[in-house]
Design brief:
Blueprint (H helix, E strand, L loop, with lengths): L7 H14 L6 H8 L3 H13 L3 E5 L7 E5 L2 H8 L2
Antiparallel strand pairs: 1-2
Length: about 80
C-alpha cells in the first residue's frame, strides 16, 4: 500500500480524528463533529486522506448511499511510505 505524506493542515486533522477513533469505523457526521467543520470542508479532508492513502472507505452495510471510514494507523502509514 502506497502512502504519501500529509500536508501539515491535513496531519493536524488526522491527529484529531485518530485521537477520537483510532482504527474504529466512523461516518461523515462523526468526522464533522470532531473537526468542527461544515460538510464541504470535511468532505475535502476525508477525500485528501483517501487519495493519499491514509483512509479506507467502504459502503455502510445498512445504507448503500452512505460511506464508513477507517483511518490507517500511523505505523502503517510510515511503513507505506517506505520504497
Amino acid at each position: 500500500m502506497k502512502v504519501i505524506p500529509l500536508p501539515k493542515w491535513a496531519m493536524l486533522r488526522y491527529a484529531a480524528l485518530w485521537t477520537r477513533f483510532h482504527d474504529r469505523e466512523f461516518c461523515h457526521a462523526d468526522a464533522m463533529e470532531v473537526l468542527g467543520d461544515d460538510r464541504n470542508l470535511c468532505s475535502v479532508t476525508l477525500n485528501t486522506f483517501k487519495r493519499l492513502g491514509w483512509l479506507s472507505v467502504s459502503l455502510d452495510p445498512e445504507d448503500a448511499r452512505k460511506r464508513t471510514y477507517r483511518l490507517i494507523s500511523p505505523e502503517q502509514a510510515v511503513e507505506g511510505m517506505l520504497p
